[in-house]
Design a protein that fits this description.
It comes from Candidatus Yanofskybacteria bacterium GW2011_GWE2_40_11. This protein has about 150 residues and is an alpha+beta fold. It has helices at about 20-30, 55-70, 95-100; strands spanning about 1-10, 15-20, 35-40, 45-50, 110-115, 115-120, 125-130, 135-145. It is about 20% helix and about 35% strand.
């Protein structure tokens, strides 16, 4: 059996870590799949997914880590619109830092479904990481199982 859906998120800041675990878990329950896998996929290159604790101080630490890893204050070739000719959209913003941050995370996570329930460890949550400016984001969910 294969089930799929798309969810949308409205981010409000950056970086922002949005817990989507309940939405994913609800879809698993509604799917009727007892055993299988669910793939959760971000449809963006300047946002990502991670499985970790949804603990405010840890999320603050992650934001600090990303600021050190890919600071907004340095120059990125991606942001130089005088030479960049590929994948340029009208109103393109300087977001090379967000793409570099996303490269250190995952664009998808795959989780087990056992006895009709999403399997998460004690503190594990599925977090959507907004690494660029606030906006509407899309995440696809696909379950393969029985």
């Amino acid at each position: 059996m294969i089930k799929h859906t798309t969810i949308t998120i409205e981010s409000k800041s950056e970086p922002e870590f949005i817990d989507i675990s309940d939405q994913v878990s609800d879809f698993v329950k509604e799917s009727g799949v007892n055993h299988g896998l669910i793939n959760v996929q971000s449809m963006h290159t300047s946002a990502a997914l991670l499985v970790n604790e949804n603990e405010p101080l840890l999320l603050k630490d992650l934001a600090t880590h990303f600021d050190k890893l890919s600071p907004k204050t340095i120059e990125y070739n991606h942001d130089n619109m005088t030479v960049r000719t590929v994948n340029v959209c009208e109103g393109e913003c300087a977001n090379g830092y967000a793409h570099c941050r996303a490269a250190h995370l995952m664009s998808n996570v795959t989780m087990n479904i056992i006895d009709g329930k999403l399997q998460l460890g004690q503190w594990q949550r599925i977090l959507f990481a907004e690494l660029d400016r606030p906006r509407t984001r899309t995440i696809q969910l696909m379950i393969v199982g029985e």
